[in-house]
Amino acid sequence: MRDPRPAGEAKFQAFLGEPASFQLAYRPPLDPEFRDPSPLSVRVEGAAADLVAVSAVDLVPCTFVALPGHDDGYEFDEPGLYPDVLRPVADGEARVRFGSWSALWFDVTTSDPARAGVHELTVVLNAPDGSELHRVPVSVELTGIELPPLDIVSSHWMHLDALADHYGVEVFSEDHWAVVERFMASAAEMGATSLLAPVWTPPLDTAVGSYRTVVQLIDITTTADGYVFGFDRLRRWLELCRSTGITGVEVAHLFTQWGAKATPGIVVNGERAFGWDVPATDPTYRDLMQALLPALQAVLDEEWDREYVVFHISDEPSGEDGLASYLDAKAVVADLLKGWTVVDALSEHSFYTSGAVALPVVATNHVEPFLAERPEKLWVYYCVSQDRDVANRFIGMPSARNRAIGHQLFASGVDGFLHWGFNFWYTQHSIRRIDPFADTSAGGAFPSGDPFTVYPGPDGTPWPSLRHRVFAQAMWDHRALQAIRAAKGTAAATEIVDPDRTLRFDRPVLDPLHYYEARRRMVAALTSEG
């Protein structure tokens, strides 16, 4: 692994509630006779030491890092062990790796305006015998500026079945709800504003004919008079969203992925009554939806502002056959969704121009035709296929390529961002579970890091990744630009991130110092009178 880059001109700044983050890299002597595996100890000195949280940057195996012929914007492109997971260091122990670098990650955070200011900290590393090995001063500015909430949708799909399956807890048991709450809070910390609500088990990433662990929030039973619905679990889900700061609700897709040809595996009377064996246009599904959707919408109207609720028909339809089946499926529920926002991810422009999808979520490498036409509302997404020229957060990519999305979203003026993999801990098509600490590529199907940004720490505790922290910084950048736009106009804000008006989704800025300088200019703009 190459030597770390010095901090150089980097200035560590953060807004109220945002972590100001930095790393310290260290390495044992490059002496073959040095064999002491004892951990070092780390501590932080200074008046603001109580605001500091320390994590170890642990390595994870990456077997699929980049496709052959990839662009130049990768840090790593071959299988190996690479830094990603942030393991909390509560005991002050810093492990050593012979012959290679290790790193510690420091977050300095406050939401108290009284603690704002420039804080002089000192990081101290001691040898196992207590002798001091290294002492380095670090200056961190917590600005005291409170930013407005993110004004675009930041949607991330949290998979409740993965939480239950990994931790071995019963779905919707008290233990499961506790884990869900912790991971929901972690998603909000990363900058998520919207999560996929499993009103029924989402029909996503599932092999045809198979089913994932049931995580259905709505209880459905039948009587002689028809369907009866129980919404207690859904109300509890919505309350968790409120308490953790999630403002958006996405109703799980009404039809299966990649063409909308079948129905989700919905459970009625405790048994699966729909699924791959029930076509999208089956009259029995229409009967269920005709009863369920109005009842669901009544609960949502009671609990939530429908401006922040979206429905999905089917994820990633494509091709002429896909368009036909998508339209057939949409027709089953179209009258039941009037007055509600319907959003779907797609790559093909024809799905928008045909009128099939009014609010598209477009892959960033296919978005230019949509930007030229400027739909009334437009979201973007990236995932496994956005591996060339655009921003993304694969482990093999540098952090600048992750953080770029905040600048790009603001400069383009789009209304939302979506990512499918907050915690997808399965192989492709959910055929089997994986250990995220041992498999970062869904069994070799997706570039390492694409399926998840958070790791399952012990006792249901989420451990963030480097990519989790950097994506959060991107969303904080967007919020700062919103504040500048409100105070000084759009041109003043755009000037900071796109002075020559050439920033595009296929041109992310990969110079890390650009983001430190842009943040410095954001802070200056929000603290100056002019």
What would you note in describing this structure?
The chain has 530 residues and is α/β, with parallel strands linked by helices. Helices cover 27% and strands 22% of the residues. The protein is built from eleven helices and 23 strands. It has helices at residues 160-167, 174-190, 232-244, 283-303, 319-333, 350-353, 368-373, 399-412, 466-488, 490-497, 512-527, and strands at 12-14, 20-26, 40-45, 52-62, 80-88, 93-94, 102-108, 117-126, 132-142, 153-156, 194-197, 219-223, 226-230, 248-251, 267-268, 271-272, 309-311, 341-346, 359-363, 379-381, 416-419, 454-456, 462-464. It has an eight-stranded parallel beta barrel. A five-stranded mixed β-sheet has the order 1-9-8-3-6. Helix 9 (466-488) packs parallel to helix 11 (512-527). The protein is globular, with a radius of gyration of 24 Å. The two termini are 46 Å apart.
Could you give a quick summary of the protein structure above?
This protein is of the alpha/beta class.
Query: Which residue ranges are poorly predicted, with pLDDT under 50 across at least 5 consecutive positions?
Result: none
DSSP summary: helix tally: 11
Number of strands: 23
| Helix/strand structural class | alpha/beta
| Strand percentage | 15-25%
Largest sheet: 8 strands, parallel, barrel
Overall pLDDT metric:
95
